Request: fold
Amino acid sequence: MEENDPEAAQNDKMVRTFLLVDINQAIRYLLGNDRATSSNTEQIAKQALNTEAKEMTSSAQPEQKSEGQSTVSKLLLVGTVIGLGYILKSKSKAMNKVVSKTTDQAHSIADKTTKRSDEMAQQTKAVAGQAAQRIQERGETAADQVEAGTKEAAEQVDKRGEIAADQIQEGSEKAADKIDEAAETVESTQEQQEEADEERSNEDEQSEEDE
Reply:
């Protein structure tokens, strides 16, 4: 039993190596709450392994080092390295998943934004085209109305001009007729006056002859 005590003590020291790592730091590292936690955990583990190895080397006697103890130490070291590697690998996979998911979400948002921008551009183009078409239609309608109004006004002016011309012509003809009538009246009056003068002169001559 006394010969196995040094071996048991060495095994206890190797087991304590795992307990030297801060549990709180290990939990934070696994949860990913702090980026600096991973480096701190690795440093603590390395320091613990180095310290334990030095203690084992200084306390062990040459005659107490057997092949079985060396094998156990190597297995424990290999287990520690494998555990740390597994933790780092799991952490890396989790980070890769998060980054991949974030990248996919960013691409999805970018695609949706581009699609919405294209839809808004098409809607704006369609609205602008409809507005331009309405403006053109209203302009053509207004031009047609102006043209129709101009034609009606011109026709009314022509009609009124023709009516005025007819009225002027009729007035001129009536005035000419009146002038002709007045001239005839003057001529008849002159003829009557001449006839009256001749009759008077004849009467005067007869009265002189009778005397």
About this structure: Residues 1-59+70-91 form one domain. DSSP finds four helices and no strands in the chain.
